[in-house]
Amino acid sequence: MTSQAFAGRYGDFGGRYVAETLMPALEELTEAYRQAQADEIFRADLEALLKDYVGRPTPIYPARRLSEAVQLDVWLKREDLCHTGAHKVNNTLGQVLLAKRMGKARVIAETGAGQHGVATATACALMDLPCEVYMGAEDVRRQAPNVERMHMLGAQVHAVEAGSRTLKDAMNEALRDWVTNVRTTAYCVGSVAGPHPYPSIVRDFQAVIGVEARAQILDRTGRLPDAVVACVGGGSNAMGIFSAFLDDAEVALVGIEAAGEGIETGKHAATLTEGRVGVLHGSKSYVLQTDDGQIVEAHSISAGLDYPGVGPEHAHLMVSGRARYLSVTDGEALSAFELLTRTEGILPALESSHAVAGLHKLRELLPEGALVLLNLSGRGDKDLATVKQALAERGGAS
Amino acid sequence: MSRIGEALAHAAAENRAALVIYVCAGDPNLALTPALVLAAADAGADVIELGVPFSDPTADGPTIQRASQRALAAGTTLPGVLEVVRRVRQTSEVPIVLFGYINPILSYGEQRLTRDAHAAGVDGLLVVDLPPEECAGLRDAALQVGLDWVPLAAPTSTEARADAAAALATSFLYCVSMTGVTGSDAPDLESAAREAARVGARAGKPVALGFGVSTADDVRAAAKHCDAVVVGSAVVREIAAAATDDEALLRVADKVRALAAGCTRTA
What we know:
CATH superfamily of chain B: Aldolase class I
Number of domains of chain B: 1
Helix content of chain B: 40-55%
Number of helices of chain A: 16
Strand content of chain B: 5-15%
CATH class of chain B: Alpha Beta
Number of strands of chain A: 14
Order of helices and strands of chain A: HEEHHEHEHEHEHHEHEHEHEHEEHEHHEH
Helix content of chain A: 40-55%
Largest interface: A-B, 40 and 43 residues
Structural class of chain B: alpha/beta
Number of strands of chain B: 9
CATH architecture of chain B: Alpha-Beta Barrel
Order of helices and strands of chain B: HEHEHHEHHEHEEHEHEHEHH
Oligomer: heterodimer
Distance between the termini of chain A: 58 Å
Strand order of the largest sheet of chain B: 5-4-3-2-1-9-8-7-6
Shape of chain B: globular
Shape of chain A: globular
Strand content of chain A: 15-25%
Number of helices of chain B: 12
CATH topology of chain B: TIM Barrel
Largest sheet of chain B: 9 strands, parallel
Radius of gyration of chain A: 19 Å
Strand order of the largest sheet of chain A: 3-4-14-9-10-13
Largest sheet of chain A: 6 strands, mixed
C-alpha cells in the first residue's frame, strides 16, 4: 500500500479519491496495464488496430487559407479523420483490448458529446463485449446522431436525468454502476480524468497523436512548432499531443477551454482558468465549485467540453508553468467553426472549434507567421443541428 | 475512551449491537435536523451519522442523492451542519460522526474543519472517498484534536487492505456489506456480517455493518456478528415520506424503535 500512496501523482494533483470498494479494482487495473504494456503481443495487436482499423497515422495538413486568415503558419493534426470521427477511438481500442485481456464480461463508459460513447461502442462491437454508455439527458438531446450510432453499434445508452444532465452526471452514474458491478465490469474512462491509473492510461493511449505529429512536423518543416494548441475539456486530446513535446522547452503548449457565454456570466466551463483546487471523480485537480465546495454546473455549447473538472496532469502543467490555458466563448467557437469550414472545407467538431478560435488569441502572443500545430480532435457532423440553431439565433448566415 | 467507544461498549455490555442512524443534515431543512437527531437518539440510536450533503455523491444511491439535493436546495453548508451539532449538544451527549465527501472539507480547510468540528461537539469523521492511501492529512488533523477516524472496508477489499483499514480505526471500522451504492439491497447480510466480524477479530476492533440494512430483520442478521449496525436510506425514506415536520419526527422515532428491537442478540 505504501508504494501506491505515491503513484498517480502529478505534482500536487491526481491520486485516488474513491470509495474503498473500487480501490482493489484500480490496483488490479494498474497491474494489468503494466503487464500489457510489457507484452509485445498486446502492443502489436493495438498497433495493428490503429493502423488498419483507425487509419493511423493521421496526416498533418498545412492549412494555407486558414493560416492567411489568422496570420500564423497553421498545421492541422487530422484526428477528425480517425475511424468514428475523433481521437477518442485511440483510447477505447486500448482500454477495451485491455478489458478483454483481463477477462471482463462487460464494458461501461460515460460520454459527453457522444464521441467517446461511440468509440467505446465501436471497440466493443469489434471485440464482442456488451457495452453500456451513460450520457446526460441534455447531451442525449443535443448529440442525437451519436446516440443513434451507439444504438446501431449495439450499445445500451442510459440517459442520466440527475443534476445538470451533462457529462459530470454521466460520470457519477457510471461510477455508481462500476461500484455495483466492479467484479465483472471494465470502466472505460474517456478522458485524462478520474482516479489513478486512468489519467496516465488515457494519456498513454492518446500519446500516439503527439508522437506522430512531432515526427511529421519535423519531417515537413524541418523544425519544431512554436506552439501546439488543443481544446481542453477533460483534456485527453490535448494531453495526447502535448505529451510528445513536454521536453521541448521552446515549444509553447496552449490549451483552450470553453468560456461558454462568457466568463463574466458564470456560465462557462473554464475549469483551469476560473476554478479552484478540489476533488471530483476520483482525482485532485482544478474544479468549478462554490465557496462551500459544491460542484457547479459547467456550460458550453460543446457537449464534450461541458465539464466542471479537468485532468490532473493539466493542473500540474499549468501550475508548473509548462503549459498555458486560455478560453474562448461559444460565439468565438462558432465563428471558428465557420472560418475553418469556409476556408479549408473541413467541418470541425465544436470541441475542436475552440482550438481553432484559440488561434486568434495565440496571434496576440506569437509573431506573425509563427509555426502552430493544432490538434483537430474531431469532425463536426454530429454538431450540425446545434450549429445551425445557434447561427440562426444570432442571426448569422448558415 | 471516546464517546463513540463508550456507546459501543455500553451496547456490548447489554448483549446487543449498537445502532447507528444516518440523517442527512438539512433534509428537509437545517432547522429540523437537530430535532430529528434527538428523536432518533431518544428512540434508541446509539450513534448518529450526520450526513454533510455534497452535490455529486457517487457512493450513494437515489434515496440519499435526493436527500442531499433537498438539503443543498435548502441552503445547507458545512458551517450550518456544525451549528446543528452545537444545538444537539445543548441537550444530548449522543455521539455524532460526520459522514461525507472530501471536496467540501478541502474547500473549508482540513485543519479548520477538524478544529471547528471538535469544538462544535462532533466525535468522529467518515469520508467516503478518502481511502487509506489518501487519508493521512485529514486523519492526522482529526486525531490531533481528539476526533475519531472511521475508515471503510468493502467486500472487494483484500485481507491486507481490510486489515490496513482496520488499523486506522480509532473507535470502529465501517464494513460495507455489498458492492453497490447506499440504499441497494444486500443479497446476503448474514455472511457479510460474518466476514466483517472476522476482520474485526483480526484487528481486535469493533466493526459496524452498513449499506443495504433497512429492516429490523436486516438489523437482526447483522447484529448476530457485528458490534454495530448502520441504517441510512431507510430512515431518509421516512423523512421524505412525511408531509409535515411533526410527522417526520414521529416516523423517524417509530422506525428507529423498530430497528433498535433488532439489535438485541437473542440466540
